[in-house]
Amino acid sequence: MKILGISGSARPESRSGSIKVVQKVLENTGCEYELISLRGKKINGCIACMACVEDNVCKVNDDMKTLRDKIVEADAYVLSGVNYYNTLNALMHSFMERWYQFRHREADILWGKLAVTVSLGGFNPAPPAALLNTMALTNLIKVVDTVEGTGAFGCHYCGYGETCKAGGYYNKYGPDTPITLETTPDVTKDEAVMLAAEQAGKKLGEQLRSAEYSREKTTQELMQAMLTLEGYE
Ligand SMILES: Cc1cc2nc3c(=O)[nH]c(=O)nc-3n(C[C@H](O)[C@H](O)[C@H](O)COP(=O)(O)O)c2cc1C
Asked: How confident is the model at residue 231, as a pLDDT?
């Protein structure tokens, strides 16, 4: 069993909170895993050319090409995104749009596989989580757990955070709250989030190894859920 972790944060890995949550989920699965960061990768959104319809292979020539085999070979995924402008950040959105290549005709490349989703926001992690869960479902991937947390936002390290009247930090805490190490959120120190990540990893590993789990059965469940989601029923 191999799990592919994808960190969708655009931040340097050392500063990203979400990549550390993904790592925590992965190391608790008890499975072999690989963690890939999308940071710095050139991944265009889907251009709806439909060239993938015949063979379920995207023809757009960018960094997604090097990731395709890893996605196909993985038995499960840990997918992370972060909140930009109250939605899923563009890098992860583009990456997920390109999973369109896997879902044509009789393709069962992803059907019935499992996932954990991870989402971080400076204030609100819910919107990216909701989108990732919908994107997984429309690819007939079952999300067994979702981990949400809050992390540092740009104001904490841009150098102007305490005084910038356009920034979230100033607006939330006012002019008299200095930015220090203590006032800078660090999701790895949030015990509830890290515990949730640990539990999500264990759950993913257990479900993958369970004798009850079959991709065929899971696919049937998800097809029903997708019909409801898309309003066909
Ligand atoms: C362009 C941009 C827009 C953002 N917009 C929001 C927002 O609307 N709501 C929010 O809660 N956080 C917002 N944030 C903050 C990030 O979601 C936050 O910094 C998060 O911790 C990033 O996770 P990471 O450290 O893994 O990259 C924004 C950050 C950037 C860079």
From this structure: 76
